[in-house]
Design a protein that fits this description.
The protein contains eight helices and seven strands. With about 210 residues, it is an alpha/beta fold. The chain folds into two domains: about 170 residues, Rossmann fold, CATH 3.40.50; about 35 residues, no CATH class. A five-stranded parallel β-sheet has the order 2-1-3-4-7, sandwiched between helices. The protein has a two-stranded antiparallel sheet with strand order 5-6. Helix 1 packs across helix 2 and helix 7 packs antiparallel against helix 8. The longest helix is centred in the first third of the chain and has 16 residues.
Length: about 210
């Protein structure tokens, strides 16, 4: 199968999942496609494939979702991994677009300007901006007992499957306005009190809550 038909299938599947995700209108992705995104030998290319899938889904959510890359921009429609991990540059570029939410897709290793993300997010200009920042990490790290966080950086979430994205999107919205999840938590609480755990679980998968409207 040639690259063009593959792209069509990927985008079709990405659009299906994107329909379940509510993101702020202006969302920026910082995409770590450095060499370390290839992953360890036993999971070679798995992290990059998951990062690629996330990018495909998020960019289908809305026209104002933008991407900044650590490595080269996509070639022939797909990501390639090259170079060292310098998250500071694309993060600054993303913040300068004045988004409502920045999502950093990275394995958590900064081998250029270690601590650069924390330095940017500690600046007074960022702290007064009201921009929410999340870190999604698709790579397990044995030394951390889970996934590696960015040093002194934003909240980190392990991401092992695309099906997790709708809930993570909810968290992104709540980072801007903690009241956004109140209806969801209320519905889950009522279901648990009723002993209906299936309804409680399914409640986290639906985004049709008034306070989560785009």
């Amino acid at each position: 199968m040639t690259g063009r038909p593959v792209q069509g299938v990927v985008r079709e599947k990405a659009a299906e999942l994107a329909g379940r995700i509510a993101l702020p209108a202006r969302t920026a992705l910082v995409v770590d496609n450095s060499l370390s995104a290839l992953g360890p030998a036993e999971r070679r290319y798995d992290p990059l494939a998951l990062i690629e899938a996330i990018v495909q889904v998020f960019t289908q959510v809305g026209p104002e979702v933008s991407c900044r890359y650590v490595g080269p921009a996509p070639r022939d429609g797909f990501l390639e991994a090259e170079g060292a991990t310098d998250l500071r540059r694309p993060l600054v570029e993303a913040l300068l677009t004045r988004p409502e939410l920045v999502v950093i897709l990275s394995d958590g290793y900064e081998n250029v300007r270690a601590g650069g993300v924390n330095q940017v997010l500690s600046a007074r200009a960022f702290r007064s901006s009201g921009i929410a920042v999340l870190h999604l990490n698709p790579v397990p790290a044995a030394e951390s007992g889970g996934v590696r966080s960015l040093t002194g950086g934003p909240m980190t979430f392990a991401l092992t499957a695309l099906e997790q994205l709708p809930v993570i999107a909810l968290i992104g919205l709540a980072a801007r306005d903690p009241r956004a999840l109140e209806p969801l938590f209320g519905e889950v609480e009522r279901a648990i009190r009723d002993g209906d755990f299936r309804r409680a679980r399914l409640a986290t998968r639906r985004l049709g809550l008034p306070s989560l409207a785009r």
